[in-house]
């Protein structure tokens, strides 16, 4: 449903399991660990926290233990190494008391549907059927995006990069038994749609604001340009050419595929009532897939970015998928890492499912993790850190911090609410010698000081830095996660 800078978080400590030498500051080398089975075992028994306190160590944990803590029944992982799928493995069960997760078990990919849709749109650009910088209304036939008060056109490039000024960040989907709207009803916010009309309500082309609504518009445009149903178009442009043979955008899922799916679970540990939600907003959230298929997709992007002659997409258009706009590092994908060794990534969340895809542009490494539990993002982070450690990635490793002594009065002046540029709220409260931070409606997270103005989480990759308070002005904060910074202004004391 959403792709945000901040993953869900719930702070829990689980049993510890030792692997490799401590402290875990230097990544192991994949070449040092023998077979794929050895590497699977090291990852399975080597999950890592985001940070550790100086003088201690980043102690590894077992995947099975962490799945129990986060109430996630099933996990599926695929790891990319040297431009190929090195291994894939399912862990846990499709539902409590159910069959084991296999590499072919299908999960809902949530917002990872968006870069797959973007790839299809760029293939139409490459074929001369779509112009990225033309008014999107030139391609919309069965529905038109209403004029905005800024008298500005909205382009396909802007919709694909979340810079078109459109609203509706995410879609909750429709539970079993609920009426499902048509795409045009979603776009106009007409019942039974459960989201507002999709409109450009900030000036197009002036700022980055995440918009699933923009991808709903792109879905309609792709259907109108091609004259084909969206699932069939995606099958033709992306799924079959890449070899994503297990994947589909069909909503609801056909009966013959249901037996091979994971069952979604809420953050309470209970099944989502009625099973998976239906998403008519297929471009934004409708992909059913498995990690191996998504790994194949990531490898195609890697090959395109390096200019491979047999790629399905030109390197120029592939570069558009990781391009930075308005100081936002990546827009069709998020990007991070060093300038000389960057990676691209996207997360996804549908009701009861979470997904994370990350792949390096140059060295052919990456990973895809999918889980059938709403608290799975916390688990996914730990898994990615284990993969990063095992394969010697420069990023996603635990960070060492020294706890600083900060006066209660100093901590107290940071208490309040802060609003990010996308409108989401960060609430900061004090806990004697540290802070508690809540992102939107998510679970509160403890942050500890390693300086007067800098705070970090021990469990997930989140850091906050507060500006120096100036008389008459409230402090702002900078949120950092996976190397990407976002500024939030104080909205109320």
Observed structural traits:
Lipocalin, disordered N terminus, 6-stranded antiparallel β-sheet, Beta-lactamase
Overview of this protein structure:
This protein is α+β, with helices and mostly antiparallel strands and 493 residues long. It folds into 2 domains: 107-391, 3-Layer(aba) Sandwich (Beta-lactamase), CATH 3.40.710; 408-492, Beta Barrel (Lipocalin), CATH 2.40.128. It is 24% helix and 20% strand. The chain is built from 13 helices and 18 strands. The chain has an 8-stranded antiparallel β-barrel with strand order 11-12-13-14-15-16-17-18. The chain has a 6-stranded antiparallel β-sheet with strand order 3-2-9-8-7-6, with helices on both faces. The protein has a two-stranded parallel ribbon with strand order 1-10. The longest helix has 16 residues, at 376-391. The chain is globular. Residues 1-31 have low confidence and may be disordered.
